[in-house]
Amino acid sequence: MPASESFRIPKHRSHVPVARQRVRKTLADWGITDELADAVTLLANELVTNAVTHCRVSHSRINVELTLTNRELTLEVADPDRDRLPRPHDSTPEEEGGRGLALVAALADDWGCRQEPYTKCVWARFKVREGAHAPATL
Description:
- The protein is an alpha+beta fold.
- The protein is built from three helices and five strands.
- The chain has helices at 16-29, 35-54, 100-107, and strands spanning 3-10, 61-68, 72-79, 110-115, 120-127.
- A hairpin with a 3-residue loop joins β2 (61-68) and β3.
């Protein structure tokens, strides 16, 4: 049975570290504490930051979901600005930002985005090595 953890945070920069900490704790609870945990936590930080920065819906909440199956871990970050799908962008060396999706593409085994009825979701998938496990309580 797949393990799943989801939570919502307010669309505010001060809540990005909260999301990062929740992702890290969930991964540790599932036995994922290696480079995969570092990559997933970094990409969660990037995707949540993008959602907080670019979502134009006032007073909204960002949804973060992690799903672990036998061989795959999926990270999903959704926000209610469904008509603005993210696009990768070539940043110049002088630009401070704009590299988040390039980082997602480099670290995830697969990634993409989709429109849902009231939200958009950006997702990243990772192959999982032996040793990760769903919590016994599921």
